[in-house]
Amino acid sequence: MAKKHGFIKGLATGVAGSAALVAGAVYTIQKKFIEPEEKKAAFIEENRKKAARRRVAR
Question: How far is CA 47 from CA 29, 32, 55, in A?
Protein backbone atom coordinates (compact mmCIF):
# COMPACT_ATOMS: atom_id res chain seq x y z
CA MET A 1 0.00 0.00 0.00
CA ALA A 2 2.85 2.39 0.75
CA LYS A 3 4.23 2.04 -2.77
CA LYS A 4 0.90 3.00 -4.32
CA HIS A 5 0.66 6.03 -2.04
CA GLY A 6 4.17 7.11 -3.11
CA PHE A 7 3.22 6.74 -6.76
CA ILE A 8 0.19 8.98 -6.32
CA LYS A 9 2.29 11.61 -4.52
CA GLY A 10 4.88 11.48 -7.29
CA LEU A 11 2.23 11.74 -9.98
CA ALA A 12 0.60 14.72 -8.27
CA THR A 13 3.99 16.40 -7.87
CA GLY A 14 4.79 15.81 -11.53
CA VAL A 15 1.46 17.18 -12.70
CA ALA A 16 1.81 20.25 -10.47
CA GLY A 17 5.37 20.81 -11.68
CA SER A 18 4.34 20.52 -15.32
CA ALA A 19 1.45 22.93 -14.80
CA ALA A 20 3.80 25.42 -13.15
CA LEU A 21 6.25 25.06 -16.04
CA VAL A 22 3.54 25.75 -18.62
CA ALA A 23 2.22 28.72 -16.64
CA GLY A 24 5.75 30.14 -16.40
CA ALA A 25 6.28 29.73 -20.13
CA VAL A 26 3.00 31.47 -20.95
CA TYR A 27 3.83 34.33 -18.58
CA THR A 28 7.29 34.72 -20.13
CA ILE A 29 5.91 34.79 -23.67
CA GLN A 30 3.31 37.35 -22.59
CA LYS A 31 5.94 39.65 -21.07
CA LYS A 32 8.59 39.15 -23.76
CA PHE A 33 6.57 39.30 -26.97
CA ILE A 34 2.91 40.24 -26.56
CA GLU A 35 3.12 43.23 -24.20
CA PRO A 36 5.83 45.08 -26.18
CA GLU A 37 3.73 44.72 -29.35
CA GLU A 38 0.65 46.06 -27.57
CA LYS A 39 2.63 48.99 -26.16
CA LYS A 40 4.02 49.78 -29.61
CA ALA A 41 0.54 49.67 -31.15
CA ALA A 42 -0.80 51.98 -28.42
CA PHE A 43 2.10 54.39 -28.97
CA ILE A 44 1.45 54.50 -32.72
CA GLU A 45 -2.27 55.04 -32.17
CA GLU A 46 -1.58 57.89 -29.74
CA ASN A 47 0.70 59.55 -32.28
CA ARG A 48 -2.01 59.24 -34.93
CA LYS A 49 -4.49 60.95 -32.61
CA LYS A 50 -2.02 63.76 -31.92
CA ALA A 51 -1.35 64.23 -35.63
CA ALA A 52 -5.08 64.36 -36.37
CA ARG A 53 -5.57 67.05 -33.71
CA ARG A 54 -2.73 69.08 -35.19
CA ARG A 55 -4.26 68.85 -38.65
CA VAL A 56 -7.64 70.04 -37.37
CA ALA A 57 -6.07 72.88 -35.37
CA ARG A 58 -4.53 74.46 -38.46
Answer: 27, 23, 12
